[in-house]
Amino acid sequence: MKKLLKKTLQFAIPLLFGSAIMVWVYRDFDFSKVGRVLWYEMNWWWMLASLVFGVFSHIFRGWRWKQTLEPLGAYPQTANCVNAVFLSYAANLLIPRLGEVSRCGVLSKYDGVSFTKSLGTVVTERLIDSLCVGLITAVAIFTQLGVFKSFFKETGTDLDSITDVLTSPQFYIILFSVIGIGILLYFLVRALSFFEKVKGVVLNIWTGVISLKDVRSKTLFILYTFLIWFCYFMQFYVAFFCFDFTGNLTFLAGLVMFVAGSIAVIVPTPNGAGPWHFAIISMMILYGVDAENAGIFALIVHGIQTFLVILLGIYATVALPLINKKT
Question: What is the pTM of this model?
C-alpha cells in the first residue's frame, strides 16, 4: 500500500505542480485562437523540419551512450541504445527523471548490460549536459546581457542582490558549513553496517561515471555532444519560422529563449510543462512579441514536441521486442 501511494505521489505531484503553473500562466488566455493558428496560419513544413531535428537529437544521444558503454566491456545493439533513449523521454512524461532509470533497464533486459554501471554513464551524461547548458548560457548572457537583466527585473529577481549574496562572507561560511556537514554524514554512513552492502552498487555506478576517460574516440564523443545540442537548439529555433509573429526573431533571440527554456525544464514537471511556457512567453515579450502570440507559440510548439516524444516512446515500445526477438 505504501509503495502504491509513493508511486502515485511521484506521478501526481509533478503533474499537479505543472498544471497549476499552466493554469496561472494561461489564466486570461483565449484558447479559441490556438486552433485557428494551428490549422490555418501555421507553416507545417517548418514544423516538420523542427521535429526532424528533435528525432536526430535522440539518435545522436543513443549513439553517444553506446560509445560510453564500450570501456565497460558492454556492447549493446545500436538500435537498443537509441530506442532506450526514445523510451526514456516518454517515461519522463509520467514521472520526471524516471527515464534515466528506465533506459538502463532496457539495456539490462535486452543486452545484459550491468544496470548500475550503465546508470553511472547516464550520471556522466547529465554532468556533460549541465556543462553544455552552462557554456551556452554564458554565451547567451555575454551577447544579450540587457535582455537577461530585463527578464530578471520583470520576473521580480534583483540581479544585483544575487551578486551581493555571492560576494558576501556569510554565503561562503554557510557553503563551507554545508560541505562540512556533508563530509561528516559521509563518514557516519561509512561507519554503519549497511555501508558494505551498498558499497558494491556505488562502486559500479562510479565505474560507469569514470568510463568517459576511456572512450575510444574523444573527438567522436565531442562531435556527438555538439550535434545533440545543435539539434536541440535547431528544433526550437526552426519553430520560429512556423509563425508570422516569430519569423523575424533573430538567432541570438532564439539562443536566449533556448537557454531560458533549458533552465526552466529543470523544474520536475512533465516535459517541463508550465515553467517552460512561463520562461518562453516572458522572453518573447521582451523581444517584442505580443503576449497572446507568445502564449500561442509556447502552447503549440510544446504540445507538438510532447506528442513527438509520445510517438517515439510508442515506437520504441513496439520495436524493442521485435528487434530482440529470439530466432
Answer: 0.80
Report the alpha-carbon distance of residue 259 to residue 280 in Å, rounded.
10
User: 287 — phi, psi (to 5°)?
Assistant: -95, 15
Report helix, strand or coil for 294: helix
Domain ranges of the chain: 40-323
Please write the tens of the pLDDT for every residue from 101-135. Answer: 888 899 999 998 888 778 878 888 888 888 888 88
Q: How far apart are CA 209 and CA 285, in angstroms?
A: 41
Highest mean pLDDT among 141-150, 214-223, 275-284, 296-305: 296-305
CA distance 50 to 254: 13
Determine contact, residues 267/274, Cβ cutoff 8 Å. Answer: yes
Q: Which SS3 state, helix, strand or coil, does residue 61 take? A: helix
Residue in the structure block whose three cell numbers are 503533474: 15
Cα angle 231, 219, 113 (rounded to 5 degrees) comes to 80
Query: In this predicted model, what pLDDT tens digit does every residue of 271-323 receive, in sequence order?
Result: 788 889 988 998 898 888 998 999 999 999 999 999 999 999 999 999 999 99
Cα(184)–Cα(172) distance, integer angstroms = 18
**Contacts of residue 17, Cβ cutoff 8 Å, sequence gap at least 6:** 267, 268, 269, 274
